[in-house]
Amino acid sequence: MSEETLYRRLRAFRDTFREGFGSESEEVRWPEISQGQILMMMSSKARHQRVAHRLRTALEPQLAAGLALYVETDLEDPGLGILRVPDLAVVNADFEPTAADAMPPHDCHCIIEVVSRSNPANDYEGKLRDYPAMGIPHYLIVDPRDGTAVHYWAPTTRTGAPTYDNQQHYTFGDTVTVGDWKIDTSGLPRYDDEAPQ
Predict the structure, then answer these.
(1) Nearest to 132 by CA among 95, 151, 157
(2) Tens of pLDDT along 130-145?
(3) What's the pLDDT at 118?
(4) Residue 113: what pLDDT?
(5) Phi-psi region at 66: left, alpha or beta (left = phi > 0; alpha = psi -120 to 50)
(6) Which branch of life, at top level (predicted)?
(7) What integer pLDDT is reported at residue 24 of this predicted model?
(8) Which residues, in sequence order, are CB contacts of 36 under 8 Å at separation 6+?
(9) CA nearest to 83, candidates 128, 16, 32
(10) CA–centroid distance for 113 within its chain
């Protein structure tokens, strides 16, 4: 069975599963698909959303005409068998959705993920594998657990596996540069130790 055939079966099951169970659940978000598996994601908590909102507020006014900032929208590459739901995505405003009403990766300029306490490996491992494979030019991970951020750019496969050629590490308080955009992280809140995300 090809990667795309398996993906389409998982995609159909995901949509059926979501309609039958997840739409009434406040705890379950749209599942993601990667490496032939459906990945269940928990709904974002308030602290996670607060960080994402501040990032959106900082970034959106800087976008040139023709670009838009999407929040938690399906991003899929059926040929690679990948469907992700990024926290924030800078995309061409006039992109044509895929047949499954998702964003195609070739219209995406930047992905920003806010790390949750419950599953940090999803952002640092799974998505760090999938986003360069999809050709996403810039990937920014913002981690309120320890007040850090990492910007990855220039996707490549020259090492034999999809990765990014470059990375830059930041701490909250720094101004992060992503392409033509600058994000001041000094106002980003960190998670409280007492409240898991």
Answers:
(1) 157
(2) 999 999 999 999 999 9
(3) 83
(4) 97
(5) left
(6) Bacteria
(7) 47
(8) 3, 6, 7, 10, 81
(9) 32
(10) 5
Domain boundaries, the chain: 45-184
DSSP states of 59-81 as a string?
Answer: HGGGPPTTEEEEES--EEETTTT
The answer to whether 55 and 111 have CB atoms below 8 angstroms apart is no
**β-sheet with 163-171: strand ranges across:** 67-71, 88-92, 108-114, 138-143, 148-156, 163-171
pLDDT at 128: 96
Coil, strand or helix at 30: coil
User: What is the CA angle 45-7-21, rounded to 5?
Assistant: 45
Tell me which residues of the chain have a pLDDT lower than 50. 22-27, 193-197
Residue 16 and residue 18: Cα distance in Å, rounded?
5
Judging by beta carbons within 10 Å of its beta carbon (0-12, 13-18, 19+), is residue 158 exposed, middle or buried? exposed
pLDDT at 23: 46
Q: Residue 78 corresponds to which tokens in the numbers above?
A: 């059926």
Tell me the pTM: 0.86
